[in-house]
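Intended use. Records like the one below are meant for learning the mapping from a protein sequence to its folded structure. Do not use them to infer anything beyond what is encoded.
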Amino acid sequence: MQIFFFLILLLTYLLILMGNVVILCLIWTNQSLHTPMYFFLSNLSFLDILFTTVIAPQMLSNLLAEKKIISFSGCLTQLYFYFFLGTVEFILLAVMSFDRYVAICNPLRYTVIMNGRVCFLMVLGCWVGAFFSVLCPIVVVSRLPFCRHAINHFFCDIAPLLEAACVNTHFIELLDFLMSSLVILSSLMLTVVSYTYIISTILKIPSVQGRQKAFSTCASHITVVTIAYGSSIFMYVRPNQNYSLSFDKVAAILTTVVTPLLNPFIYSLRNEKVKGILKEALNRTFLYKHVT
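Structure written out for the chain above:
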């Protein structure tokens, strides 16, 4: 049975890598995609590759090993990068919603507001902000004494680690809850505010075709936001007494494997421009092979 799960996870991991690498290559090699929206999308694809790589290789190794072992330092490293990259993604999704707000609500000033320097600083802010916001809880967890060496999870998440501690972890649980709530709910609020203005502006467009075109530019992002926030809110923005390990395992799979798998397909299948460029690239590849 473990071999079956190994093959499924390996196939999924390879699809994640392939899908996101394709998105990155399309954006980097096509001048028409060198715009703020696709710059942020390329960062999201790069982020999804890193995020899955933090968890998937260790899971694949554990599925084949009799003893599922990870060092304490390796566990803390995995825990840190899991939360660090997850936090970057939430902030980046909020930034992407702001980009859509400027594009739809202030189209004449879009290129002035969202210039290359501003986009770079926004992405840099995502990474730097996430780095510092996650650092404190991980340092606190690293100093805990642990009574047992086994955790009931397929990767080093915060909740099973705290369960293995020898001391009262109420303060750390509260700190984790507050930090998770701050990151997830504040970025979600920025996204909701942006889309409130976006929808209000779209509804004022007189033509049906114009409204459909405006909505289509936001559809992919809304889908990704719904998936990303849906699982994470139920995992981390809740009191500890509502903790359910079984639910967390399912939600963790959705967050670490399913979401990075869906993102490139959502953006390629729902975006006419990306689909068109992808078809051109495939046609050129097949034509080259046919000629040679």
